[in-house]
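Hi C.,

You asked whether I'd gotten around to modeling the 56-residue construct. I have! Everything is below, sequence then structure, no commentary in between.
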Amino acid sequence: MNKVEEVKELLTDTVARIYSTIKDNSLEVTKEKGKVPQVRSVRPTRHTIKWKAKNH
């Protein structure tokens, strides 16, 4: 295996691990141009539905 394939495989594994971590912990990452990425917890859907029903 050459270095390019090794880096490609390592990057794919890392991205998959990050994606699963974000999905399992209900995290959201937002990136705006020129700003640092923001990571925050996502509110459970049940809370969002209650909030929208109450406020709309």
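If it helps when you're writing up: The first helix runs from residue 3 to 24.

Thanks,
B.
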